Amino acid sequence: MLSRLTSALSPAPRPDGTGLADAIVATTDVLVVVLDPLGRVVQFNPACERLTGLQYAALRGQVLWPFVLDAAERAGVQAAFERLMAGTAPRRHEHHWRTLAGERRLILWSCTVIPDPRGGVAFVVGTGMDVTREREAQQAQAESEARFRALFDRSADGLVLLDPHDPLVPWRIVDCNAAFCHMNGYERHELLGQSIDLLHSHPMMARDGPDLLHWIREEQPARGEGAHLHRNGSVFPIESASSIVTLSGQELILGQDRDITARHRTEERLRRLAEQLAHESQHDPLTGLPNRALLLERLQLELRRSVPEEQTLAVVAVGLDGFRRVNDTLGHAAGDDLLRETARRLRDAACPAHTVARTGGDEFTVIIPAAGDPEGALRAARALHRVVAEPLHLNGQLFPVRASLGVAVCPPDSSLPANLLRQADMAMAQAKRDGGHTTRLFSKALDLAAHGQLHLEVRLRRAVQEGGLHLHYQPQVDAHTGALLGFEALVRWTDTKLGAVPPARLIPVAEDTGLIHELGAWVLNEACRQAAEWRLRVPVAVNVSAAELIREDFTARVRAALARHGLRGTQLKLELTERFAPRDLRRASAHLTQLRALGVQLSLDDFGTGHAPVATLMGLPLNELKLDRALTAAVAGSAAEQRVVGALISLGRSLNLNVVVEGVETQEQLQALRDLGCSAVQGYLTGRPGPPEVWTTLLETLDA
Ligand code: C2E
Ligand code: CA
Ligand code: CA
User: Fold this and answer.
1) Which residues line ligand 1 at a C-beta cut-off of 6 Å?
2) The pTM is what?
3) CA distances from 174 to 62, 184, 209, 482, 681 (A)
4) pLDDT for residue 281 is more than 70
């Protein structure tokens, strides 16, 4: 044996087979080392030389360990070597060798002790394998599995590992985490080893498993939604992602499940909300009837069908007469009852094919398809009228319901939905003008009347821009002495075609169209010019609309007009109608303050009719209240009215404001007002509005 081992440098085998072992040792990739009992190198084969870079020739007879072992490992290896020789250590041993290049390699050694004839140890033969790579791979694998385990255990999603290849238990649960157990209501040990079918309402894996596996392999991960059967018997929706994982060489399915009950609930709630919103956006909340938007949509559909089929379609506009009075006298609750009841009556009277909609505060619209000729449509509308106008119990009283109806029929009326609705509205307006509580059919003549409005607008614009307006002036006088206190400028317009158009008609048109700014600027300038020409010592009053006052440049415009004609601020008064919403007044209050600083006087017009709260008044820098002429009309007669006017006069006084009463037409009214403490009046009695010429002479006599 020794001779064979030591002759390893000349490894050629001889024909008798001796030397074969040496040849193997010399050529094998297995590391072969032979040491004597002191650890000195007897053999160090070429595989060892290749691994370490050390030469056998240099090592021979030297103690091996300092050459290949790190100091730290040396003592341990040496001790193992001793025990090996004593026969008490395992034959397999693992330690690192350091190569000449400084690399550490892990070697798995298998050692054999060769005894000497005296019963001692002659040699120790070690055969070794470099297992560095494998060990690293194993370690990486172990680490990755540990990481997977940690993620698996801690994931908030339910995770389950399934074995799809178990021949006995289809899709056997190999492992699952706490979240998965919790989600399904089981303890972990109750699930392990069971088929995933435990969580399905019907077993399916035996049948569907192969397809499923195929799908998962293709998708990687395969996502889907499904349901699980909870331990308590309930079924809940889940969302899952399944993928293939290979653990310890075994193909498994990793299922990642999430309970989506909450999401489903939210989605359901959102869906219902969307439906509700869609319904609400198309229906009137009070009566539940379709609103104008939905009516238009339906009308469009109906017309698209009826026009090609040459059928007549009628639109009936239904308006309750005097609804405002019901609200004011019986209260809003009664008003709502009336509207709901009207809705019910119309719906009951109409066929299912009809559409009944609420199109305004006190207005309803009914679409009647296939209405026959206009006469037939009118008859149908009258039938609706009778139903709607049945007396009704409101607040315990039998209340007579009155309604005006307008009918438009296509053909001959418009086949455009919006136009047809407008035509029915016009016919209803005509029914109201004719005294109400009746039904009218639309006619072209009504359309022409509506065109009149447009006409007015066009002509007014021209008048404002090309100088067709003029002013009348009405004096304000001392109630006791008749002395002149001022003039109010009132706009006048006489159109060549339309004749004299009263301010009550033209001012709203001007306000709606924005013409009011140009109109107001012209009035302001003209009134200032006239006051300057008259060298008026009392102020001239100009009416101002809310829209004008809230414009940025209003103060600047007033200042410019005053400057242009050399007037002081105190020579101008602005009358703000009480129609001003409190919101407008607040927005305008900065302007009002600046105007007051210029000395301009501010009067609140038409006081006592509107609903301007006294608190709003007190916040404004006013000089004057002008009591509306509606109050004046009755002041000579009724004691109650007198008390109201008296109270308003003292309110003004207590706020330190001038009070002017307008619309004074009779001596009795004047006397009554004097008695109530009124000091200034305006009206036909003391002077009708008139053109400047009328006043020029009077002013001259006053001056003289
Ligand atoms: P208002 O400011 O209340 O003007 C007083 C209205 O009462 C004037 O009507 C006047 O002619 C009328 N009146 C005067 N004394 C009597 C009387 O004793 N009995 C009766 N029944 N009426 C009397 P008018 O001129 O038709 O003006 C109507 C309204 O148009 C004015 O009401 C005012 O609000 C507005 N308005 C007039 N001119 C202008 C203007 O230049 N600008 C603006 N924004 N509005 C103006
Ligand atoms: Ca006025
Ligand atoms: Ca007035």
Assistant:
1) 474, 490-491, 502-504, 507, 520, 523, 543-545, 575, 577, 605-606, 629, 662-665, 683-684, 689
2) 0.47
3) 56, 16, 16, 111, 102
4) yes
